[in-house]
Amino acid sequence: MISKTIREITKMIPVSNDITVFAERVISGVSIDSRKIEQGNLFVPFKGEKVDGHKYVISAIEKGAAAAFWQKDVPNPPEGLPILIVDDCLAALQELARAYLKQLTVKVVGITGSNGKTTTKDMVTSLLSQKYKVQKTEGNYNNHIGLPLTVLQLDQDTEMAVLEMGMSARGEISFLTKLAEPDAVIITNIGEAHLLDLGSREAIAEAKLEILEGLKEGGLAVLNGDEPLLMDRIAGRKGELNIQTFGRGEYNDVYPIDIIQTQNGNEFTISGSEQRFFLPVLGTHNIINALSAMLIARHFSVSCEEIARGLKETKLTQMRMEMTEGSNGEKIINDAYNASPTSMKAAIDLVANLPGYTKKVLVLGDMLELGPLEEEYHNKIGETIDPEKVHLLFTFGELGARIAEGARKVLGEGKVYSFSSKEMLSKELKNHTDKQTLVLVKASRGMRLEEVVASLQKKEE
């Protein structure tokens, strides 16, 4: 993490007050939460709609913070304390991250896309870790606050930084990529997430392509070649960009061959290689994510043997295709972190085709931020469920009820249950599971369907 004297900090960002008394004090790391201050941190207070972090500056220093920012339009900065008065606390945090990153010799990989960003980030990290010291975005620290905090957590000897870049509006990816100036980037896909904010998949594609604006000269752009919305938009730029594509189609630079899906993951080979790979992650769609990670690894001279080992050792962030076991012995795929029509269909397809189970149950909830066509998207999800391969459907939420509505057309009334209570859903679901049952739990993050997973795991007293 960043470790600088206050004097050095003032050379990296503009500070308007005299810090001479505290100039040689060392700050180590940055925190924006006064409750989580660690010894030596720089505390950055933000002015929110309900809470002003400046109220906690004194307590943060008392808890061990070495210094704190103070926004100049906030009156009465405390005297006699290591306070750095800046024009704007957020802008100062971002500029400090930018300046710190320029001092490091680290290579940066930026990742964006509608689905699969975090999964791909985990895979890229695992592959690059076979050869380099790597740090990655933790949790969902992928926005205009989270990415600077991630950068400031980088150790000075870190060789590779894998940074996830999220967005909800145009211009946000542009800002993040220009701050990070990546050496390589990935766009995983263009889905339906953020339709509510951007209005169309075409607009989403334009927003994701902003990641190219910060790509260093000669850097690598790894793009999903199966996505026309991407390929059409960069067609005229192929001469100026170093582009490699991945996907299912044989027109891509790399595509999968001979896929074998198992209960624990996927075995496969790829175009141009006889090496057989194993990915301990469920879902053939995750092989496509893996291909993008493999192109990144190749670009940074990771050998084929190291790539194979890195894939085999991949561990995903929690609640992403996470296999657990319930109290009745049923297997549960906890994919409750996020959902869109694209990822929902992929997860359902996984369950439908996964061998070794006599009963397959879907637990699906609302997919959020889909805009005015949200009910239609949910209804279509239900209509696409294969009654020959899926035995029961449980839904939660108002939009989940639209999934149930569509599913009744194909599964029949008796195989579809719709609930507005997670407690009632879990209670009924337990009556239908045993050791031969596979359960998929998936919805948008706001639905918190991991609570259903926890209920299934809890033994009856």
The percent range for helix content is: 25-40%
Please write the CATH class name of the largest domain: Alpha Beta
The largest beta-sheet arranges its strands as: 8-9-7-10-11-12
Shape: globular
Catalogue the unreliable spans: none
CATH topology of the largest domain: UDP-N-acetylmuramoyl-L-alanine:D-glutamate ligase
Relative strand content: 15-25%
Q: Rg from C-alpha positions? A: 24 Å
**Biggest sheet overview:** 6 strands, parallel
The CATH superfamily title of the largest domain: Mur-like, catalytic domain
Mean pLDDT: 93
Q: What distance lies between the first and last C-alpha atoms, to the nearest angstrom?
A: 46 Å
What is the CATH architecture term of the largest domain? 3-Layer(aba) Sandwich
Describe, in short, the structure shown.
With 461 residues, the chain is of the alpha/beta class.
Task: Note the main attributes of this structure.
single chain, alpha/beta, Udp-n-acetylmuramoylalanyl-d-glutamate--2,6- Diaminopimelate Ligase, Chain: A, domain 1, UDP-N-acetylmuramoyl-L-alanine:D-glutamate ligase, 6-stranded parallel beta sheet, 33% helix
Q: Could you please describe the fold and organization of this structure?
A:
By secondary structure, this protein is α/β, with parallel strands linked by helices. The chain folds into three domains: 3-89, Udp-n-acetylmuramoylalanyl-d-glutamate--2,6- Diaminopimelate Ligase, Chain: A, domain 1; 104-312, Mur-like, catalytic domain (UDP-N-acetylmuramoyl-L-alanine:D-glutamate ligase, 3-Layer(aba) Sandwich), CATH 3.40.1190.10; 322-457, Mur ligase, C-terminal domain (Protein-Tyrosine Phosphatase, Chain A, Alpha-Beta Complex). It is 33% helix and 20% strand. It has helices at 6-12, 57-62, 89-103, 117-128, 146-152, 172-180, 195-198, 201-208, 228-234, 285-299, 304-312, 341-353, 374-383, 400-411, 422-430, 450-457; strands at 3-5, 26-28, 30-31, 42-43, 67-71, 83-86, 107-112, 134-136, 160-164, 184-187, 220-224, 242-246, 256-262, 265-270, 277-279, 322-325, 331-335, 359-365, 392-396, 416-419, 437-442. It has a six-stranded parallel beta sheet with strand order 8-9-7-10-11-12, sandwiched between helices. A six-stranded mixed beta sheet has the order 16-17-21-18-19-20, with helices on both faces. Strands 3-4-5-6 form a four-stranded parallel beta sheet. A hairpin with a 5-residue loop joins β16 (322-325) and β17.
